[in-house]
Specification:
Layout: E1 11-16, E2 20-29, E3 33-37, E4 42-46, E5 50-54, H1 59-69, H2 90-97, E6 101-105, E7 111-119, E8 123-128, E9 132-137, E10 143-146, H3 174-179, E11 185-188, E12 197-204, E13 207-212, E14 216-221, E15 228-229, H4 231-236
Antiparallel strand pairs: 1-2, 1-5, 2-3, 3-4, 6-7, 6-10, 7-8, 8-9, 11-12, 11-15, 12-13, 13-14
């Protein structure tokens, strides 16, 4: 296993699940997460999803890396979410990020923009101006990027982004939360596959029974669900 201590304050390039490639300076590392800085943004990357790591960057990015690591570049004294002197973990980052605007990535094609509202045992709730309240398992978060303090998602006014977007009480676990949606229309993984949109019938042995359009029944593996939202449940509560 790589010892990230050997690469602190050095340029690295890595690939995470979803074939996302990142190049930047390794700023901090924790028990299950690292932070890299690309000259503009801080990327919080769970170690679980890091597939490859290299200290060799492509020529096109080498100039940027030199700029970041020369004598002019200084490691920031603090990070947007935690102090450099603090112990770092995914849960701590998520707890600190509650209520702050962030970009995050869970699926293979789309990023989400909004803010975290709750952090539970194995998932967190996320408010998006586009999708409203989303429920996201911790294990499927690929990266998180804090917004600059003056930025808001889609340039919306802060009055358009409710501090308490839903009064629905979050269950302790992701499976328990999904069971609240039985009988409702749910959208898994942002609806990128039509077989992931339908009425939730039941959950048994980590298998989700879903009736999709035209009365077809499909079964989904609970552990592979990356996001879920349930518009009708939010409206009824």
């Amino acid at each position: 296993m790589i010892d990230f201590n050997n690469y602190l304050n050095k340029p690295i390039q890595l690939t995470v699940s979803g074939n996302k490639i990142f190049s930047g300076v390794l700023i901090d590392k924790g028990s299950d997460i690292i932070v890299i800085f690309d000259g503009k943004d801080f990327f919080y990357l769970p170690i679980l999803h890091i597939q490859t790591i290299s200290t060799t960057v492509h020529e096109a990015e080498h100039l940027l890396m030199n700029q970041l690591t020369d004598t002019v570049f200084k490691v920031p004294n603090d990070l947007p979410l935690v102090e450099l002197t603090d112990s770092l973990s995914l849960r701590k980052v998520l707890m600190t990020a509650k209520g702050l605007f962030v970009e995050l990535f869970t699926t293979s094609t789309q990023t989400l923009h909004g803010y975290i509202t709750h952090v539970m045992n194995d998932y967190f709730t996320f408010y998006s101006p586009v999708y409203q309240t989303l429920y996201i398992p911790l294990q499927h978060l690929k990266y998180l990027v804090p917004y600059d303090t003056e930025q808001t998602p889609y340039s919306l006014g802060k009055e358009s982004l409710p501090l308490q977007p839903t009064q629905v009480k979050a269950a302790r676990t992701f499976e328990e939360q999904l069971k609240k949606f039985i009988g409702h229309i749910v959208i898994f993984d942002l609806g990128q596959d039509y077989k992931r949109v339908g009425k939730l019938v039941q959950i048994h042995d980590k298998q989700i029974e879903l009736v999709i359009a035209r009365d077809e029944t499909v079964y989904l593996n609970l552990q592979h669900v990356k996001t879920v939202h349930c518009p009708s449940y939010q409206l009824s509560n």
